[in-house]
Amino acid sequence: MPSESPIRRVLVYRLGSLGDTVVALPCYRLIARLFPHAERRLLTNFPVNGKAPASAAVLGDSGLFDGYMRYTVGTRRPDELLRLAWEIRRFRPDLLVYLMFVRPWKAVTRDRTFFRLSGARRIVGIPSTLQELKHQLNPATGFHETEAARLARLVSELGDAAVHDLANWSLSLNAAERQAAANALAPLGICPLIVCGPGTKMQAKDWGQENWRALLARLHASYPYHALALIGAPGEAAMADFASAQWLGPKVNLCGRLVPRETAAVIERGQIFLGPDSGPMHLAASVGTPAVIAFTAAGIPGAWFPAGPAHQIVYHRTSCSNCQLETCTAEARRCMTSITVDEVYAAAVRALSGQPGKTDLVVMP
To answer: Looking at the structure, do residues 149 and 207 belong to the same domain, yes or no?
Structure first.
């Protein structure tokens, strides 16, 4: 679609926080390329978790959007829905791009009706069936398409979002953000850097602070001249301290001290990033740092793997895989607790030695 098209105002609908925002970057960049002179706004939510940053804090001054509309997820208050409908109608979008996660078809149909009644002239991204909305399975691998690939498929009538081109994942970090990262890391000197974000806002994704402590102790013994930076939300600082207690070399705990884009700039300076299946691994992917991830099997297999070929994924498929639970009530988080320190250590060594990315898939009995 040429940039001289009569599209003057574009509204993009995407909820979520850190990881949800980053995986939509290729689609956001496609929209910006197609409509560089249009006013582009993102309709998103207020964070529903204290550890979750808003989309605006992730996108910063990347230039992808000119403004934001926000509402509270799950609201059924007529006054708030009327306020949102009035705000959309006042904006008068020529195009609404629907970039929502997979949800019940009834909710999708309700969304379409709401946006039509709110004045959206054209809607792109809502397929004709629920099956088309879902992540498509690759029978050869047993994994599903990534969330980024699913979104790109649904808006393909606009063009190719080129999710495999890592340039489309750039957050366009600026000099001030990179300088903030440099200042935060200054106490570490010039040592090669390992970055670790052991925390997660979901219990089902938690690998356990004892595991992180054992892993970091072993890595320090093998790489004594490396420094360690720990990142995360303010409430994860104590866990990060515990996890790094046996790292006797240079280290700094940055949990709660940096905004998301400055955190991305810290990860950018690392040789590798270590963490669970959580938002920071997508920051690592966006800045080109190989991620080593103890990955939960609670979600759709493969849908949330980080973008790029360099990442080392440790994934145990259990009988209760794809449970979709945020708080595990099945088999005591076996998909995570069965992942050993040895496995993640081996994956980290591969990443530090520059080996190609790999998914260590273990099918549990």
So the answer is: no
Q: Which two tokens stand for residue 305?
A: 């793997």
Residue 149 in tokens: 């690939």
**Structure tokens of 70?**
């926000």
Strand-strand pairing, 67-71 and 39-45:
parallel
Closest among 1, 320, 337, 328 to 156, alpha carbons compared: 1
Residue 312, φ and ψ in degrees, nearest 5: -110, 110
Same domain, 100 and 227: no
Q: Is residue 3 part of a domain?
A: no
304 lies in some domain: yes
Indicate if 290 and 158 belong to the same structural domain: no
pLDDT over threshold 50, residue 16:
yes
Give how far the C-alpha of residue 192 lies from the chain's centroid of Cα atoms, to the nearest Å: 25
Average pLDDT over residues 72-76: 67
CATH of residue 324's domain is 3.40.50.2000
- Picking from 132, 150, 169, the residue at the C-terminal end of a domain is 169
Encoded tokens for 128: 């004709």
* pTM for this entry: 0.93
DSSP string, 283-294: HHHHHTPPEEEE
- Same domain (yes/no): 147, 243: no
- Between the alpha carbon of residue 248 and those of residues 59, 186, 226, 269, 351, the distances in Å are 35, 17, 11, 21, 22
The whole-number pLDDT of residue 2 equals 45
Expressed as residue numbers, the domain containing 335 is 180-363
247 CA to centre of own chain? 28
Strands (E), 133-257: 137-138, 143-144, 193-196, 227-230, 251-253
Q: What is the DSSP string of 97-142?
A: EE-PPP--HHHHHHHHHHHHHTT-S-EES--SSHHHHSPPEETTTT
Is 4 inside any structural domain? no
Q: What is the pLDDT of residue 52?
A: 53
Overall domain count for the chain: 2
My answer on whether 52 and 197 are in the same domain is no
Task: Judge whether 2 lies within some domain.
Answer: no
Q: Is the dihedral of CA 350, 351, 356, 360 positive or negative?
A: positive
